Amino acid sequence: MKFNKWTMGLAAVGVVSLASAARADEKMSQVQTALSNTTLSGYVDTSAMWQIGQQNGGNIPKYTPGGVASDGFNLNSIDLALDKPLDESPWAAGYHAELMFGPDAVPGSVTTTQISAGRGRSTTVTSANSSTAIRQAYLTLRTPLGNSGIDWKVGVFDSILGYESTSDGLNPNYTRSYGYMLEPTTLTGVLGTYKVNDSIAFSAGVADTANGLDNRAKWETQKAYLGSIALTAPDSWGWAKGATLNAGVINGDSGSVNSDNSTTGYGQTSWYAGVVVPTPLTALKMGAAFDYLELHNGGSNVGNSSDDSAYDVALYGNYQYNDKLSFNLRGEYLNNGINGDGLYPFVGTHRYGPHEPNSAEEVTATVSYQLWANVLSRVEFRWDHVSHGDSFDATSSTNSRADRDNAFLLALNLIYQF
User: Fold this and answer.
1) DSSP state, 42?
2) How remote is the C-alpha of 299 from its chain's centroid?
3) Cα(139)–Cα(320) distance, integer angstroms
4) Are 204 and 280 in the same domain?
5) How many CA atoms lie within 13 A of 106 on its CB side?
6) Which is nearest to 217 in space by CA: 275, 256, 264?
7) Which region, left, alpha or beta, applies to residue 298 given φ > 0 means left and ψ of -120 to 50 means alpha?
8) How many domains does the chain have?
9) Residue 132 backbone phi and psi in degrees, to 5
10) Which residues constitute the domain of residue 23?
11) Nearest to 167 by CA among 136, 144, 196, 211
12) What is the pLDDT of residues 255-286, one digit of tens each?
């Protein structure tokens, strides 16, 4: 084994031994080998928002995961991720570790307060405008079963449901859809994925709870069980090749777990189906998403002792004009029959009766253009309309103000990605 002159000099005066230096060098080589396939990625996400009109002091839509971005300039999040992907070996192993800082480090994620306490409770580190969260942290493992083997995630990972991501840059629009707000976003558990072939894949798993990371279920009947299927159109489909269909369900308990292992709250079932379809016009792709949320047996956060539900239907369009310029359009309809649960975008009592559904529509238009290398820059206009239920910017005395049934937003979003 070769040593550098500095090591040889220290060995000559008895400061170190060549044997210990050899062991240290061997350990360093092992660390370097383990890190050789590890990648660092992330982004810095900022925005400027202008809420046009008077909807500035009350029940405005939750445009972002943290729900705190509003008029003025915003730091949305800083995201850092380390990855060691699976290789092609039958017993491959790797990991993904992702930290998020800032207002979009949503309460559904594990926070540093939670880690230091050693409990499965989700709390904010400092305030809604300054939080730190483990966005994802899981092992990736492969077991050589069947044609392709089963790939596992063990730890904290994103939900299997949804058209949109918690990461802004992965979405066609800057602001989030109503459907995103209905879905679980982060789960703690184990998830297995089996790829039958290039067109069919299945996923199934179990998590501590169906609603983020707020509670840790102690009995199997209190845990969340999840499953999904992903279908991809083969090349033989012509212009429709690459079209995808994803569908899944998460069912479990969303209430708090008491010291006697009983639960306070309600069960929750989330259903999702989404498609992305190319068109004969190469630059144009269309998408659609359906979200359905059902809360079972009422609970302290629900104004009805029976089951309540909400659903959302969304349509997406993407036109990629060239390598730099793209146009994205989203339109959706939300029907919220869950009374008093604070579901986006409604709070408080219903205007037309205690258990009649609230409903709203929104249309979002986004233009993206790459002015700088590695920077996603986009301008967005959004219109929300309450067609049934509490008005935007409503208070207890102004819930039925028809002049507050509309909310308008103009936003600029800049994200440096590395």
Assistant:
1) E
2) 26
3) 35
4) yes
5) 24
6) 256
7) left
8) 2
9) -130, 130
10) 1-36
11) 136
12) 554 554 445 556 789 999 999 999 999 999 99
